[in-house]
Amino acid sequence: MEKGKVGNYRWVICALLFLATTINYIDRQVIGLLKPTLEAQFNWTELDYGYIIMFFSASYAVGYVIFGSIIDRIGTKLGYSISVAVWSVAAVLHAAVRSTLGFGLVRGLLGLAEAGNFPAAVKAVAEWFPKRERALATGIFNSGTSIGAVAAPLLVPWILGAYGWQEAFIITGALGFVWLIFWWFLYEIPSRHKKLTPEEYDFIHIDNEPAVTETAGSLNWSRLLQVRQTWVFIVGKVLTDPIWWFFLFWLPSYFATTFNLDLTKPSLPLAVVYTATTFGSIGGGYLSSHLIKRGWPVLKARKTTLLIVAFVVLPIMTARYATDIWVAVGIISLAAAAHQAWSTNIFTIVSDIVPRRAVSSVVGIGGMSGSVASTFFPLFVGWLLNYYDLLGNIGAGYNILFIICGFAYLLAWLIIHLLTKRMKPMVL
Length: 428
Fold this sequence. Notes:
Residues 13-424 form the Major facilitator superfamily (MFS) profile domain. It holds the Pfam family MFS_1. It is found in: Membrane. The chain crosses the membrane at residues 52-71, 78-97, 103-122, 134-156, 168-187, 231-251, 271-292, 304-322, 328-350, 362-385, 397-419. Its main location: membrane. This protein has 428 residues and is an all-alpha fold. The chain has 2 domains: 1-218, MFS general substrate transporter like domains (Growth Hormone, Chain: A), CATH 1.20.1250; 219-423, MFS general substrate transporter like domains (Growth Hormone, Chain: A, Up-down Bundle). 77% of the residues lie in helices and 0% in strands. The chain is built from 18 helices and no strands. Helix 3 runs parallel beside helix 6 (117-128) and helix 3 (46-74) runs antiparallel to helix 17. The two termini are 32 Å apart.
C-alpha cells in the first residue's frame, strides 16, 4: 500500500487523546497548586490535606477497574465521554465545597472518573492504529501527562491572581466539557466512521485483526487473571508506577534539601525534568514502531525497547555523587524520560497481546494494581527518609531510593521476558 494514498484521520483521533490526557493532568494538579491558599482559607492541617489526597488515590485505583470494565462493555466513545464528563463535573464542584470532608468527596469522585482516561485511550489506539504505529500514537497521547504537569503551574497561578481560587477550579474543569464537544462529533470506531477513506481503513486493519463493534459483551475478570498477558501488564505497572510517583512528589524536596533549591520561586530544574519526559514518551513510542516497520516481530520490538529503557534508567544510581544541581537534573531527567518511554510501551504491549474487546479491562486491572503499589510505596519512602533524617543524613535515604529506582525496571523486564517466553495467544 502506497504511503501517500493512506489518509491521516487516525492522527486526529490521537490529538484528541493527547488533549484529554493533558486536561486530565491539569485537573488533578489544581488542588496542589492552590494548597497554600486553601490551607489559609479553611484552616487545613497537613493531616487534613493528606486525607484529601488519600481519597483521590484510593478512588483512582478503584476507578481503573470500574472504567476498564465499563469501556469494554459500552464502547470507547460513550465510555470515554462518561469518564471526562464526570471528572469535569467533579473538578468544577471543588469551587462549591466548604469543608475538608467536602473536598475529600469531590476529590474522590475526580479520582474515580479520571481513572477512565488510560483504559479508554489505549483502547482507542488499538481500534485506530495498526501495531506498527501504536507505540508512537501511545507515546504522543501519553506525553499529555508531561504537558499537563508543565501547563498547570503556568495556568493555575495566573487564574488565581486574576480571578480567585474558585474560578481556578471552574475554568480548568470546564476544559473537559469543551473537549467533549469535539470528541462526540469527531470520534467513531473505524468501521462506522464516515470520514475514513477505504485506504486508511485497510491500513488500520493491516494486521488482520478482526474489526470490532462498540459492544462486545461482558468479560470475566477471574479469567483475565488466569492468563499471562494480564500479568505482563500488572508486573510492568506494579514495579514501575511507584517510581514515577516518587519522581513527581519527592523530587522538589530532594532538590531543596540537597541543593537548597528555593521552592517559593519558579523552578527551572523541575521544569527541565518534566519537559524531558515528553521526549521520552514520544521517543520510546517511535523506537519500537520503527523496529516493527523494519520487519521486527512486534513483541520482540516492544521487549527490546523496554530493555534499552531499563538500562537507560541505571545511571540514576550515580545521582548521589552529583555535587552540582544541573548534573543531578541531567541524570534524573534521563531516568524520568526513560520511565515515560517504558510507560508508552507497556501500555502498547497490552493492545499487542490482548484481544481488543479485553484491552480496557486488562488496562484497568493493571492500572489499579499499579495505583495500589503507588499508594503503599510512599509510606516506605516517608519512613526511610524520616529514619535517615533523624540520623542527620537524609541524603543516604535518597541514595537508597535511587538504587531501588535503578534496578526496578530491569527486574520488571526480566519477569516480563519470562512471562512472554512461551506465551500462547489469548483466547476469550
